[in-house]
Amino acid sequence: MTLRLVPAYALFAVGSVVMLAPFLWMVSTSLKANADVFVYPPIWIPDPPQWGNYVYVLELLPFGRYLLNTTFVATTVTVLEVLTSSLAGFAFARVDFPGRDRLFLIYLATLMVPGQVTIIPNFLVVSWLGWNNTYLALIIPAAFSAFGTFLLRQFFLSIPAELEQAARIDGCGYFGIYRHIILPLSGPALATLTIFVFMVQWNSFLWPLIVTNSEQLRTLTVGLSYFRDEYASQFNYLMAGTVMNVVPILIVYVALQRYFVRGIALTGLTGR
Amino acid sequence: MGSPHPLAPSPARGRGGGLISGDTPGPGRVSLRPLRLTLRRQATLAGYLFLLPNIVGFLVFSSIPVLVTLGISTLDWDMIRTPTFVGIGNYAVLLTQDAVFRQVLGNTAFYVVGTVPAGIVLSLLLALAMNAQLRGITFFRAIFFVPVITSAVAVAMVWRWLYNRDFGLINLALHAVGLPAIPWLSSSAWAMPAIILMAIWKRVGYDMVIYLAGLQAIPPQLYEAAQIDGAGRWRRFWHITLPLLTPTTFFISVISIIGSFQVFDLAFILTSGGPGNATNTMVMYVYNQAFQFFHMGYAAAVAWVLFLIILAITLVQWRIQRRWVHYE
Q1: In chain B, which residues have their Cβ closer than 8 Å to the Cβ of A250?
Q2: Are A182 and A90 in contact (CB under 8 A)?
Q3: pTM of the predicted structure, to 2 decimals
Q4: CA-CA distance, B259 to B310, in Å (whole number)?
Q5: How does DSSP assign B166-193, residue by residue?
Q6: How many CA atoms lie within 13 A of B47 on its CB side?
Q7: Is CATH 3.20.20.70 the right assignment for the domain spanning A61-270?
Q8: Is B89-324 in CATH node 1.10.3720.10?
Q9: Handedness of CA A71, A72, A78, A83 (dihedral sign)
Q10: What distance in Å separates the CA atoms of residue A72 and residue A80, rounded to the nearest whole number?
Q11: What residues of chain A lie within 8 A of the CB of B177, using their CB?
């Protein structure tokens, strides 16, 4: 390493501290005894670490239940969205049928509508169907965004048509082409959409806040927001709860980091 | 969408052309007409079948509700009594009599102006630094992305503690360099800047990654040619990098303005709109009107105004892009 690179690394190091310090502070606080939270100068490494804070929080709140709810909802939404979007994206990209372009225009137009505009009717539909305080309310309205269809359609268009023609001559129908040609060639796009939808769902807050009253159905984010109201300044417990919210998605991120970053770049580029 | 895509599938597409008829000119066309008809019908059936699972949910929960919201916004309705039609009454009250709405609108605009330009400049600078081919660079990039994947709720929980007046890390850091403590969340002057600062911190890694993709798409030959012509670093940045990044900058400014107008989670957890209404935002106002006070029609009108504002700004951006965005 040449001396010239020292300023660059120093800059990155400072930047990384700014990005990570809040998280380290969160973990540190979550392990502090009540008496060590409000002290000056601040303690970074609690001695001894109060692992009991986590036990205490888990007794106060059914965090396990929240975690289960969030995992179940996020996974189901992701599967539904990726599956139905890939089917619809295939129709828009690869099948010529009357009304196709007009329907796609509706998808495109909806892409620009902020989600909050649809909340009130969605709440009414969900209430009318009697879905309030059920998993259906959390899952179904979230699972059919225009975004997934748009993203996959754009990707499917880039797959050369010759492959499809060859399969057609071999007697492959539309479903065969979808299943045996388009899907296997779309790994990166499907992975991107999967992770993107999962992340958005994992972190989703406003919709679950609106449609769940019962504690049994609360997701991690909603549970955390109620926890905030009840334990306003007991920061060690609040941070323990927050850690439990952050860690699972962080593990997914570390494991699949490549796809996260590429996914953002890809979704960014489709907008150009 | 109206015009055919260059990459769109060729079989069974366009003026009766396609696999079969295209390959067999002359009399063969006539004899194959019934088969072509079947193919077309087959395509129609397949198209709608593939679309069906998605489009039902899409129509019910994504596209039709946009119009339903417009309908509801003409009602006076608390979800208990029968709704009464008030025409543009809700909008009239909203725009002429509602002082809170005016404040909410101002707060949201302040948030957008505070986050978007600063976020763009900062993420561009970061991307330029991070574009270097250095050992361990992917590790640093990954670190900047951690706040992006973390939920806004969790981020705001942590920052509530960071902003604590007496023992928060930020005021302790200010104290360490001899600056006075700032009443971040309890002062109506500081609460919105506090949200803006946190929002930029959370988002900067996202924009940085998009900028990195843009930077990596610039052909290196351009820099080589410029270097041969004697262009220095600054000139290369000014005449190559910046112009070729304008599509990326345009994209980021469009999506971050749209996203910033919808701020809810961060502000809701950090300040709940307070103190007073100092950090109340448009989406929070929709939420409170609809789901705390059950003023459904009024809330729908607020939501629709938000939509119109976003739409208008996006259209204006679209119109003026050709003055500053370079497309290859």
Answers
A1: 146, 149-150
A2: yes
A3: 0.87
A4: 9
A5: TT-HHHHHHHHTTPPP--TTT-TTTHHH
A6: 19
A7: no
A8: yes
A9: positive
A10: 12
A11: none
Instruction: Quick: pLDDT tens for B212-256.
Output: 888 988 888 888 888 888 888 888 889 889 999 998 899 899 889
| Nearest alpha-carbon partner for A201 in A147, A255, A124 | A147
For residue B321, the surrounding DSSP H or E stretch is helix B296-324
The encoded tokens of residue B77 equal: 């309705």
Give the pair of three-digit tokens for residue A39. 């002290």
Report the C-alpha gap between A232 and B309 in whole angstroms.
35
A–B CB contacts, 8 A cutoff, strictly below: 303
Closest CA–CA distance from residue A86 to any residue of chain B (Å)? 9
Give the DSSP letter of residue B83: P
For residue A6, which amino acid is it? Answer: V
pLDDT per residue as tens digits for the range A226-268: 888 888 778 999 999 999 999 988 998 888 887 777 766 665 5
Residue B258: CA count within 13 A, CB half-sphere: 20
DSSP, res B150: S
Q: CA nearest B152: which of B262, B256, B285, B269?
A: B269
CA distance B224 to A240: 53
Sign of the C-alpha dihedral, residues B101, B107, B108, B110?
positive
Collapsing DSSP states into helix, strand and coil, what is residue A148? helix
Tokens of A200: 């958005």
pLDDT digits (tens, 9 = 90+) for B101-150: 999 999 999 999 999 999 999 999 999 988 877 888 888 888 998 999 89
Which pLDDT value is given to residue A129?
92
Name the residue ranges covered by the structural domains of chain B.
19-72, 89-324
Residue recorded with tokens 């939808």: A197
Given CA atoms B326, B115, B312, B64 in this order, what sign does their dihedral have?
positive
Q: Where are the domains of chain A?
A: 1-50, 61-270
Looking at the complex, report in whole angstroms how far the Cα of residue B73 sits from the nearest Cα belonging to chain A.
Answer: 10
Distance from CA of B149 to the nearest CA of A (A): 7
- With CA atoms as reference, the chain B residue closest to A258 would be B142
Q: Kindly report the length of chain A.
A: 272
Beta bridge partners of residue B75, listed in sequence order: B85
Spatial distance between the Cα atoms of A30 and A14, rounded to a whole number of angstroms: 24
d(CA B317, CA B301): 24
E strands, A160-231, are none
Residues of A in contact with B153 (CB under 8 A): 203, 205, 221, 224-225, 245
Q: Which two tokens stand for residue B193?
A: 């800047």
**Residue B236 structure tokens:** 């290369």
Identify the closest residue of chain A to B258 by CA–CA distance. A114
